[in-house]
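We were asked to recover a plausible sequence for a given structure. The inputs and outputs are reproduced exactly as logged, with field labels preserved.

PROBLEM: sequence recovery
POSITIONS: 541
GIVEN STRUCTURE:
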């Protein structure tokens, strides 16, 4: 069975391909067209078909569009309620019309595709499937929370034997994701894009507006919640994009963040009582809030939690494909990892270097070369293997630095052109992580939880220790990532530190690099000292 999944309705257009029950490829369109989140400069909603990523998925499996058995589209226009308060009827009508015509748009983008094989999959069901069907557990409770789907913002249920039983949902306009987006915009950031900045800013604040948040955001006892009617200006003035960040802004961020965590704990308790499951899988944009995920893990009722690494809307492409595959009698195997995007052969990488006319070398071991550069406090761009699916750089499209130099936090934020309150993350071998980091789950390969940094290590790795004493770690398994593991081992042998700084290889407002051309342009335009491109090394003169 050959099933293509498509997300193309809100943001983060993406495509994914499942062949004979195996996830073989998945990628966001932004990696190809270089428009972050698929958004043009003048609109929040691009409704962009992932034409390039879909074609690439098919090429990866040597398939033509006519070879597909089905296409899953992660939005069902028949479920839209145009009468919902807070929604613009004309806008929803336009969106629904676009979605209904998606089969014809896909036929035009992928000549040979039969539009009759396109199946609409409810948005939150696609989210749920991306974690419940594509995650590591045969059965699990599942929790999905984001801005919105067709008419809801939340789903709670469980998967047993590949079948989803939905136990609760929440109708719009009540939405945890939309309220977080509202605050993101109020604080001068881009909604549906910069919510992680609010989470980072919250660490600098005191939740003194929490009582007001509890009055407006609360569980309703039936698996749902109320989340509406918040007047942000009652607590902090609206900030322009270039305006000064005030303490009130940080306090407001801290208050909403804390209330989000509290409510998710209440919803998880309800779901646990209903299902009796010991394992929870999560997806939806809210599941990218790693601080809230850690509170669920540390204080919630579930023994294990797995979060889809592409938890945002990009992941619904995979979930739609998985849902359709299961409906057709072929439950997919767990996704093999997040490295489901484009990869390049050594010959292709060498050709790109020759075309760019830059001097390069091929050392005996790039892991050793990178470790030596990092020991000398160089910033290293690391481009190796297939690109990651989702928003986290996991050692395939990463910027690396020495964690023992406190100044490297400011230095990396300057390289990337982003706010100085933003943290960077530590990469650590899985077998060493327990010595340095606590509270969150280990292993943690997808950078979706925060961990307390052991007090004895905080002064030794200041670049990766956030202001609240935590770090969003990525654990590296030797069997899965032998090259990264060797680099970490070589770095520790030279410095005594089993950690390397890891942040995404991009600059502010741009998607992560994906191709050799992308990374060479980034290297040429940014103060990066060393580029590791597969087996090759480029050094700035």
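RECOVERED SEQUENCE:
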């Amino acid at each position: 069975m050959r099933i293509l999944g498509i997300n193309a309705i809100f943001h983060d257009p993406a495509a994914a391909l499942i062949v004979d029950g195996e996830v073989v490829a998945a990628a966001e369109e932004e990696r190809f067209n270089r428009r972050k989140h698929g958004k043009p400069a003048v609109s929040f909603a691009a409704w962009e078909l992932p034409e390039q990523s879909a074609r690439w998925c098919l090429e990866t499996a040597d398939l033509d569009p006519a070879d597909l058995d089905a296409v899953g589209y992660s939005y069902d226009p028949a479920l839209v309620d145009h009468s919902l308060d807070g929604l613009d009827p004309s806008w929803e009508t336009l969106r629904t019309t676009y979605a209904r015509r998606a089969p014809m748009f896909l036929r035009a983008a992928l000549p040979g595709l039969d539009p009759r094989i396109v199946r609409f999959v409810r948005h939150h069901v696609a989210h749920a499937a991306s974690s419940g069907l594509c995650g590591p557990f045969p059965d699990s409770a599942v929790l999905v929370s984001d801005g919105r789907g067709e008419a809801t913002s939340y789903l709670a249920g469980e998967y047993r034997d590949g079948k989803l039983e939905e136990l609760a949902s929440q109708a719009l306009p009540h939405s945890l994701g939309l309220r977080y987006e509202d605050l993101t915009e109020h604080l001068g950031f881009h909604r549906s894009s910069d919510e992680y900045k609010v989470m980072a800013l919250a660490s600098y604040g005191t939740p003194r507006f929490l009582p007001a948040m509890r009055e407006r955001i609360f569980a309703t006892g039936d698996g749902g919640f109320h989340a509406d009617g918040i007047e942000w200006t009652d607590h902090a003035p609206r900030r322009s994009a270039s305006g000064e960040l005030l303490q009130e802004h940080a306090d407001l961020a801290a208050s909403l963040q804390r209330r989000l965590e509290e409510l998710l704990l209440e919803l998880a308790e309800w779901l646990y009582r209903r299902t009796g499951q010991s394992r929870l899988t999560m997806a939806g944009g809210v599941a990218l809030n790693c601080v809230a995920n850690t509170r669920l893990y540390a204080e919630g009722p579930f023994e294990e939690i797995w979060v889809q690494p592409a938890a945002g809307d990009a992941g619904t492409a995979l979930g739609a494909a998985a849902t359709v595959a299961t409906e057709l009698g072929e439950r997919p195997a767990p996704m093999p990892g997040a490295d489901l995007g484009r990869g390049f052969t050594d010959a292709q990488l060498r050709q790109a270097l020759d075309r760019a006319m830059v001097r390069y070398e091929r050392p005996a071991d790039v892991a050793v070369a990178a470790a030596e550069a990092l020991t000398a406090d160089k910033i290293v761009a690391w481009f190796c293997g297939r690109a990651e699916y989702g928003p986290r750089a996991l050692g395939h499209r990463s910027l690396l630095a020495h964690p023992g130099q406190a100044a490297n936090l400011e230095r990396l934020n300057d390289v990337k052109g982003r706010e100085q309150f933003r943290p960077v993350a530590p990469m650590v071998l899985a077998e060493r992580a327990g010595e340095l980091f606590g509270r969150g789950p280990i292993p943690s390969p997808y950078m979706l939880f925060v961990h307390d940094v052991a007090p004895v290590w905080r002064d030794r790795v200041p670049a990766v220790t956030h202001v609240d004493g935590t770090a969003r770690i990525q654990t590296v398994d030797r069997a899965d990532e032998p090259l990264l593991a060797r680099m970490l081992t070589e770095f520790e042998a030279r410095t005594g530190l089993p950690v390397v700084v890891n942040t995404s290889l991009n600059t502010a407002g741009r998607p992560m690099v994906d191709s050799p051309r992308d990374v060479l342009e980034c290297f040429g335009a940014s103060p990066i000292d060393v580029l590791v491109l597969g087996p090759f090394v480029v050094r700035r003169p």
